[in-house]
Amino acid sequence: MTDSLVRAPETDRTHATPEQYAERYARSLSDNDAFWLEEARRLDWVTAPSKAGNWSYDPVDIRWYDDGVLNLCHNALDRHLDARGEKVALHFEPDDPESEARTLTYRELHREVVRIANALKAIGVKKGDRVTIYMPMIPEGTAAMLACARIGAIHSVVFGGFSPEALAGRIADCESRFVITADGGLRGGKPVPLKDNVDAALERPGAGVEAVLVVRHTGCEVNWTEGRDFWLADKANDADCPCEEMKAEDPLFILYTSGSTGKPKGVLHTTGGYGVWAALTFHYVFDVRPEDIFWCTADIGWITGHSYVAYGPLLNGASQVIFEGVPNYPDAGRFWDVVDKYGVSIFYTAPTAIRALMREGDGPVTSRDRSSLRLLGTVGEPINPEAWRWYHEVVGSGRCPIVDTWWQTETGGIMITTLPGAHDMKPGAAGKALFGVEPVLVDGEGKLLEGAAEGNLCMARSWPGQARTVYGDHQRFVDTYFSTFPGRYFSGDGCRRDEDGYHWITGRVDDVINVSGHRMGTAEVESALVLHPTVAEAAVVGYPHDIKGQGIYCFVTLVAGEEPDDALERELKAQVRSEIGPIATPDLIHFTPALPKTRSGKIMRRILRKIAENDYDSLGDTSTLADPGVVDALIAGRRNR
Ligand code: PRX
């Protein structure tokens, strides 16, 4: 039974009772402005806002706390110094468990941030400039983000696993003239050549920058461009560095994410609304108490690392662990070693990690103590009930509630979840809306679906953490999120709402696939494939994958005269890796003489998806195909998993 209730233990019912949730939720909608003005008091403001929401979905113009002035770095650090300057802000756990761990108190992290902020000023960064951060998961990564926020620069963090090509595209798109990186990183004992990648990226057209600040981390050899490259240590200094006064709607960061068409979009978040949303969601969802040790395993290159590593925990004055490595190095018990080492009480990770560890059996978990854990969370993709139960029963020893949090880069923070204490859990369901969030389901024509139903997941109203635009392309923002169902924000996800009002996310309904919790545009992978001279055409779809959630299945037709072989298959995979990065590596390449197309030449992806899923009985109507025979040939050539 997948939707049986799992009750939260009574001892955890201290944070928000079911009644408190219902009351607060109702008021958050009925008295929206007052609710959000009250919640804004979670932050210190230079000028408190007089009004909360000021938004419209038609035309699309989203503003929150318009006349407020604040600085988020002040809120994350400076304001804590008097009361909790000596409290731990970050426990840094390096990739190699034998290497030296580092702990930074709020005072120490503040000092680090000021030093980096001064270095940024020294290389010429000014308010409003874009700064690309391409870093391993080390304290300087978070500190660099906060340093940008401190001086009013807009950070654009690019995941350290992205290729030079992908990095170059992101630098060029937002015309970033500054990069912060490290000499190298380490993941699972393997070096990641970050500085080399930056060097390679900066050779690409459109990606020239003025200055690169380099953090000495692994001590590896690096090439140096005099006049452009600077060691952070040579530019950093302890001079006073006041926080820049920012308007609530001043941009805070850009984060690139994949969509169903074109190149990745630079999703833009602004200062006041995002800050309130990150602070509030962290507080309620993770039920945080002063003594908690929080650990979110996400990289700062993703939105989860923005909201629940860099901003949420620090805005709340919480202590957290940041981890450079991977779950299975040196062995499959590493997560739980780290939990025991720091006494982690709240643990937040992705279903793909849970599934990968589940495959290693219970031993690596049960051989560790884990008694400090009291709350578990998941994010990034639907969690299958089997993995949910393993997480609950084995990792959490049946004691810890699980929050299955649904949200997106564009939502800035958690939108749908159960709240520990307030809601019982259903394995596989994200749960209910957070305060101020009004999810609705609509059918293909945009008709509102009431009660228990399945449809397209939209939001009927704005919330402070909502993205404001796509950097440099507002029309793309409008077209992507507000044109399919006018007057509503469309998430791109399908969802079933059950009779208890719980939301079960069914996955993307657009041409986006979710690989290990990472969003991948099929169009991006296709573009990378067709760059190869032998490829005439490519169509990429997702298929169910035991560990990754979805795998990448590529249908490829070759130009006349080319013959497929293993070497070509390897070359095509390498091509995608170098264009995007290892996370986009195709799982399966299916060479086919033709793709199923309508008479007007449109590729019928629905059929390709079914073939990739081995679901031949429900191929649907194939009569509109220009050549129905193509389907039989595709089935005959189906690649085995
Ligand atoms: O399909 C949903 C899935 O991840 C997408 C958002 O991806 P991204 O912007 O990269 O952000 C991931 C981290 C917030 C969504 O459209 N998704 C995210 N969380 C869940 C989920 N699907 C099901 N259950 C979740 N808890």
TrEMBL record:
Post-translational modification: Acetylated. Deacetylation by the SIR2-homolog deacetylase activates the enzyme.
Superkingdom of this protein's organism: Bacteria
The protein's name in its UniProt record: Acetyl-coenzyme A synthetase
Cofactors named for this entry: Mg(2+)
GO molecular function: acetate-CoA ligase activity; AMP binding; ATP binding; metal ion binding
Amino-acid positions noted as binding CoA in the UniProt annotation, renumbered to this chain: 187-190, 304, 328, 516, 577
Cellular component, GO, one term: cytosol
One family name in Pfam for this protein: AMP-binding
Binding annotation for ATP: 380-382, 404-409, 493, 508, 519
Biological process per Gene Ontology, one example term: acetyl-CoA biosynthetic process from acetate
Residue span, Acetyl-coenzyme A synthetase N-terminal domain: 21-76
